[in-house]
UniProtKB/TrEMBL annotation:
Record's subcellular location: Cytoplasm
Keywords from the named record: Cytoplasm, DNA damage, DNA repair, Glycosidase, Hydrolase
Molecular function as annotated in GO: uracil DNA N-glycosylase activity
Record has DNA repair as a keyword: yes
Main location group: cytoplasm
Transmembrane annotation, as ranges: none
Gene (UniProt): ung
First-level EC class: hydrolase
Keyword Lipoprotein carried by entry: no
Designated name of the protein: Uracil-DNA glycosylase
Length: 230
């Protein structure tokens, strides 16, 4: 997977160029091509693999939220973690994220799950693995995406100042363990999944803490209120 083949926002393309020439990316591309040739349905569509990066240039990153895998149901995933396409039922973890935003900031829950409004303000909604096979959760783990997204997080850590990392659950916390807390605000809580949200995600206040920190840094806070229409 050469950088010249990939359509990617310029700041990220420049920063991540070396990754695309690494053998693991060549192997990852071969794997994805073979899966499609075998008739398997892959989500999200190819033009949206790097959607999180395209919507949030490196020099505009204010907040990083880490997910694990894209949703594996038809029509859900579109390249942003926790987000679903317009018209798709809001997933349980996102329902809980909305509940915490309402508790923390008094913003009523959105009626849709389309989070591009956040991404366009500098919220990097990054999954660790960027593709999945339909109806097979975690099917593309261990194929190379994790190394690529480690490079994304490393770039934010090293090239940006004063970014808020919202690390929900042990997976995200382990993945971003190298982030420098002296340069960035690292917020940790349990995952918003219904299985764990009551163990400390609810009441964590991450959204107000993030905005307070951004204001202290002289940056615009994030408008967490989503538009009525996706």
């Amino acid at each position: 997977m050469a950088a010249s083949e990939v359509k990617l926002e310029d700041s990220w393309k420049h920063t991540l160029e070396a990754e695309f020439s690494e053998p693991y990316m060549t192997e990852l591309r071969r794997f994805l091509v073979a899966e499609k040739e075998a008739g398997k349905r892959i989500f999200p569509k190819g033009s949206e693999y790097f959607r999180a990066l395209d919507l949030t240039p490196l020099d505009e990153v204010k907040v990083v939220i880490l997910g694990q895998d894209p949703y594996h149901g038809y029509g859900q995933a579109h390249g942003l973690c926790f987000s679903v396409q317009p018209g798709v039922r809001i997933p349980p973890s996102l329902v809980n994220i909305y509940k915490e935003i309402e508790s923390d900031l008094g913003i009523p829950p959105a009626k849709h799950g389309f989070l591009e409004h956040w991404a366009r303000q500098g919220v990097l909604l990054l999954n660790s693995v960027l593709t999945v096979e339909e109806a097979r959760a975690a099917a593309h783990q261990g194929k190379g995406w994790e190394r690529f997204t480690d490079a994304v997080i490393r770039a934010v850590n090293e090239e940006c100042e004063g970014v808020v990392f919202m690390l929900w659950g042990s997976y995200a916390q382990k993945k971003a363990a190298f982030v420098d807390p002296n340069r960035h605000l690292v917020l940790k809580a349990p995952h918003p999944s219904p299985l764990s949200a009551h163990n400390g995600f609810f009441g964590s206040g991450h959204f107000s803490k993030a905005n307070s920190y951004l204001i202290e840094q002289g940056r615009e806070p994030v408008d967490w209120q989503l538009p009525d229409q996706a």
